[in-house]
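ugh ok fine here u go
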Amino acid sequence: MATSPDYPPYEFEVQKNGKSQIVGMDVDIMKKVAKDLGVKLVIKSMSFDSVLVAVETGKADVAMSGINPTPSRRQSVDFSEIYYNGGQSFLINKTDVAKYKNQSALAHKKIGAQTGTLQYNLAKSKIPGATVKGMDKNTDLVLALKTHKVDALGIETPSAEAYIKNDPDLAMFKSSYHLNKNETGSAMALKKGSGTLVAAINKSIDQIKQQHLANQYLADAGKYMKVNTHNTSMWHYRSYFLKGVEYTLIISAISVIFGVLLGTILALMRFSKSKILHAIAVAYIEFVRGTPLMVQVLFVYFGVGIIINLPALLSGIIAVSLNSGAYVAEIIRGGINSVDKGQTEASASLGLTKGDSMRYVILPQALKNIWPALGNEFVSLIKESSIVSIIGVTDLIYQLNIVRADTYRGVMPVFVAMIIYFIITFILTRVLNYYEGRMKHAR
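structure:
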């Protein structure tokens, strides 16, 4: 099951028995389905933008994240029957209750909605003159609402109810959309051609409807949410941030090592007399530098994943390493060019081969020249590695969004993550400066 656990009460994370677990109505429904099918349920967390792609590329058998089976989505994936229809609502600030009493009052206003969702498309097509602002996370949208960047937030009714129960500054009202229930409820998404599996899942959904289990699961989710909001201090969620720091450092450290190795090889290839090696290095560097890291992460995880099923963490490390290698290559190339040509001539006159000259004479001097730039790349890598959260790697940014979803606190988790990043980069900068000073005094 692929899901984005930042959408209470459908799916969210909670500390249970000292461990972080994904819970919610969708999770309980999927457990029931897995039991009926006689299979083990494995939950893969990732950003909402990626859950359908995970199904299309075989990373998951089922995507379940409060997904509406719209016609456009049906072109890419198969859907089960609707298992729950909570309806559509709008979140507003409580101070605006008198101002926005119904959907008609939102005409020509700024409406927030999660990018790529039914709520986004509805606001665009059915609210006259509305300016729709899309974001990837509902937690970001709620923060935008509370800071008056948007006037209202389009969201499913159960989630809206969850927010107003846990945040006294928010209010809600139901939409007046006239919608086809077969398109607006929540359904499970499966890979195209999964007819047999869809039929088996639909049998479980029929039982869930007949026994009204969805309401029971929704009530259970509410109990978990009360556990989360009982103590919303950042110290209470310290294990989340510590886990995020652990994964951020692992990704950064490994990516730095492989990035430097790859960058050195690419830089030497650019200096090679072989036109083929030179062309390969130039093409690689230009291509990587010309495409966003986020796209590279998605390609390694989903694109390469079609051939080799790589875990999310490994995919993130590979993508960040490959990206870093291209930038390090240019830094090293600049350092080599900064070494006086006379050094090469002097080493040749001493009988050194070109390889030995590069190893013992040129590169050591180049390293002194490029150390500050190389240090900047290391620092940038720690911050840029946060992009791996989109494929479900539990780095610091991923944990930040989970804490925001669980506690309904928009700003404080961001502030904590910002301080943590500063501490990490400050310490690293001091270490790099120490070694830079030693290099300057070395003979």
